[in-house]
Design goal:
Number of domains: 2
Shape: elongated
Strand order of the largest sheet: 3-2-1-4-5-6
Radius of gyration: 25 Å
Mean pLDDT: 95
Distance between the termini: 38 Å
Low-confidence stretches: none
Number of helices: 18
Largest sheet: 6 strands, parallel
């Protein structure tokens, strides 16, 4: 094969049946779809995924979150609570590489759609299961939203200022992390299937995905009894690395390595700081972290943000602004790498959103289609892909199974 065989992305020969709602499962579907997989999203008739109405939007307008998480997907409706709907799902499974779901554990089994039943139909099937606590263990069947996984995985406790209660990250990071780990697991299972012909279950728990991002938090406590606390904008004993004021805003400078700190001192026209016993080493700077931050802040506050950034670039010191959407949309680096793209949407017209990541040199992913309307691809999938008898299709529609 050559790259032209995968012109729509490296996964363009694979099919995903996406079930479940909200973010943890659908974001995994977005990741796979961005890389070319055919993602068929299954939603309840007359209802759909709540993501279709979640997020900020103008009064009376559709969600502005759904166009992002729903991109590159086909949408069909199917009532999985009815035996006839379950039967159609089994037919879809025979033509799928992946089945992706994020229902509470036990739900699919209740519908006769568990791993044992579906793998018997399609031994090559890879079932991707995303949940709050995983498929096993005493908490498995408890409701587990992303916020709970963030709290129990250790993230919430360390986020925020030490003077305030634990904070939220500002995005649904627990759901997205579980979805990303699920995608990694799915591709790992795919590699195994290529060698053996056998599928398997990918069990991604939100709290475990968060836990896996917590660096040495567990090990530090295990060996020293140290419990990480909230530290605001700094990492204790790692200095300088903080947000500093300028005459017109804020700038983040990270110069905690010895050689980089030396270059920062040159930029500040205070080279002697690099050999000052209080700042000469990583440990010394950590000990005098607050004092050093105050000294750097006094210097940056005499300059514009652009002035500080230019000096940092000239001296090879990592620095950057704290961006919001407006800054991202005007940044030349974002533009050069097409980090944000303009897409076409049937309702909104031109719509800007983040592009596919990561970038692949031979078979890049892409945004190929806008988020679909509820049941938009029913005919294509049920009549086309499954070759369903039209009379049966009409009966299922009349019975509100489809």
């Amino acid at each position: 094969m050559n790259p032209s065989d995968f012109k729509n992305g490296p996964l363009s020969d694979l099919r995903v049946i996406e079930m479940g709602t909200l973010l943890a499962g659908p974001f995994c579907g977005q990741v796979l779809g961005d890389m070319g997989a055919e993602v068929i999203k299954v939603e309840p008739p007359n209802q759909g995924d709540p993501m279709r109405v979640w997020g900020r939007q103008k009064q009376g307008e559709p969600s502005l979150w759904w166009p992002v998480v729903g991109r590159n997907k086909k949408a069909v409706t199917l009532d999985l609570r009815q035996p006839a709907g379950q039967e159609v799902l089994r037919e879809l499974v025979t033509k799928a590489d992946f089945l992706l779901e994020n229902f509470r554990p036990g739900t699919l089994e209740k519908w006769g759609l568990g791993w044992e039943q579906l793998s018997a139909i399609n031994p090559r099937l890879i079932m991707i299961r995303v949940s709050g606590f995983g498929q096993t263990g005493p908490y498995a069947r408890q409701a587990g939203f992303g916020a709970i996984g963030e709290a129990m995985g250790g993230l919430r406790y360390v986020v925020g200022d030490p003077s305030t209660p634990p904070s939220r990250m500002g995005i649904s990071i627990g759901d997205s992390l579980a979805a990303t780990f699920a995608a990694v697991g799915a591709l790992s299972a795919l590699h195994y299937r290529e060698k053996t012909g056998r599928g398997q279950v990918v069990d991604s728990a939100i709290y475990e995905a968060v836990l896996n991002m917590m660096e040495s938090l567990i090990t530090e406590y295990d060996k020293t009894g140290y419990i990480r606390e909230r530290t605001g904008a700094i990492l204790p004993n790692v200095a300088p690395s903080n947000v500093y004021p300028t005459t017109d805003g804020l700038v983040l400078i990270a110069a905690n390595q010895d050689t980089v700190f030396g270059r920062l001192c040159e930029a500040m026209a205070q080279p002697g700081l690099a050999t000052d016993p209080q700042y000469v080493s990583h440990q010394a700077r950590g000990t005098h972290q607050q004092q050093l931050d105050e000294l750097i802040g006094a210097w940056t506050s005499t300059l514009t943000t652009r002035g500080v950034l230019d000096l940092m670039d000239k001296h090879g010191v990592p620095a950057g602004q704290i961006y919001r959407a407006p800054e991202m949309l005007t940044d030349p680096h974002f533009t050069a790498r097409q980090a944000i793209v303009t897409t076409q949407h049937p309702h909104f017209g031109e719509l800007k959103m983040q592009n596919v990541a990561p970038k692949l040199s031979e078979t890049p992913g892409s945004i190929r289609s806008a988020s679909p309307g509820l049941g938009q691809h029913n005919d294509d999938v049920f009549l086309g892909l499954l070759g369903m008898d039209p009379a049966r299709y009409q009966r299922l529609c009349a019975d509100q199974v489809i």
